[in-house]
Specification:
Two copies of one chain form a homodimer. By secondary structure, chain A is mainly α. Chain A is built from nine helices and no strands. At the A-B interface, helix 1, helix 6, helix 7, helix 8 and helix 9 of A face helix 1, helix 6, helix 7, helix 8 and helix 9 of B.
DNA sequence: TTCTGAACGGAACGTACTGTATCGTAATAG
DNA sequence: CTATTACGATACAGTACGTTCCGTTCAGAA
């Protein structure tokens, strides 16, 4: 995920992997501290102890840099507990436990907003988002194979149903979602809203 | 929602309501065209045909200006169809029909991201977000009173369950959500994911 | 009517940042 | 060794922020 050609084995000084990692780390640290809007390439350069040109040799601008840094943040992890309920609760609990230790809350919505006016960004983001979501999709596939899911359920939409409430609370309402809340959320998505009376 | 004191009835030239509305309109137009990041106060001033100082006399910075403009964007509208299903489908369909005609896709996530590093913003946003969500909450209250909801359902969480998938698709996945998709989404939230076999 | 004061658009200003270019030095391959 | 790429630090032209200023306009008070 290098936005700029990194040159093959040619005569010349090789790119410094140390600088590369220092830049990504500085980006994540500053995202946490000041958020996306206030993040500057100059600030990243200073924090990472590199020259600005070093950053611009690798990334065309702030946005692709933040996209790559974003890709290093925690996503859903594979869990196979034997039941959909177990998978979902475990996965979401893990995600939430990681959430507060990362700049996800500022980075993810900012990237989402940028993409509304930058179609090129979708090409960078979509594969990454899909990858990050993959463990969740697998949990649903297993559930369908086990006959746990209603037959007419669209798996993609099902995943959105489970992830949606958490995303709204974390990202849009700025709420603290404690990992213990996961149970109630998953239960609700699994059993639905309507009274069994109908 | 005036961020700067607007002076009572004193001797002096009164604030121009025309300028005020022109500024808000220019803000929304430019949000649509260039998004939050690329929106500049200088650009808004030029588009609205006002001086920069005119904007800064009313709003401390770009952020409160965008917040006020955001508050003018479509939200959920009150619908009372007699059933929860009818209410939800109607409300969400209306919301989606309006969505594409507004800069919601860029503005809302950006404000959400900003709030992660600006607690003061929560004080501006929270009342507004609550107000925008109120019709939805009322639909759930009516449903509970009619006995349509399962007795243990938390209304706030229920609303998040319904809104969540749409929010994820609109804001985070950059998907086109056609108003006709509303039926499947609401049906899924109402009936849940799990097979009736269990 | 004049006086006072707030607001107006346009412009100037110091500061910060963008993205590019440059420089002397460093690290490689051939 | 030469040629080449990369490094950090710095300079540069351009843009935008937020503040200040100016001449003009719009209102209330006297």
């Amino acid at each position: 995920m290098r936005s700029r050609a990194d040159g093959g084995a040619t005569a010349g000084r090789p790119r410094s992997e140390e600088a590369h990692q220092a830049i990504l780390k500085a980006t994540l640290d500053l995202l946490s501290e000041v958020g996306f809007s206030a993040l500057t390439v100059e600030g990243v350069a200073h924090r990472a102890g590199v020259g600005k040109a070093t950053i611009y040799r690798r990334w065309a601008s702030k946005l692709p840099l933040v996209v790559e840094a974003f890709g290093e943040l925690p996503a859903f992890e594979d869990v196979d507990s034997g039941s959909l309920e177990g998978d979902l609760k475990s996965m979401l609990r893990r995600y939430l436990e990681n959430f507060l230790a990362t700049p996800l809350a500022a980075a993810y919505p900012s990237l989402a907003a940028e993409r509304a006016h930058n179609p090129d960004l979708s090409e960078l983001l979509d594969p990454m988002l899909k990858r990050r979501r993959r463990p969740l999709a697998r949990a649903f596939e297993r559930a369908r194979d086990r006959g746990e899911l209603r037959p007419d359920v669209d798996i993609d939409l099902a995943a959105d149903l489970v992830v949606g409430p958490i995303a709204v609370r974390l990202f849009f309402r700025g709420m603290r979602v404690h990992p213990d809340m996961v149970d109630a959320m998953v239960n609700l998505a699994l059993s639905g809203l309507v009274s069994r009376r109908s």
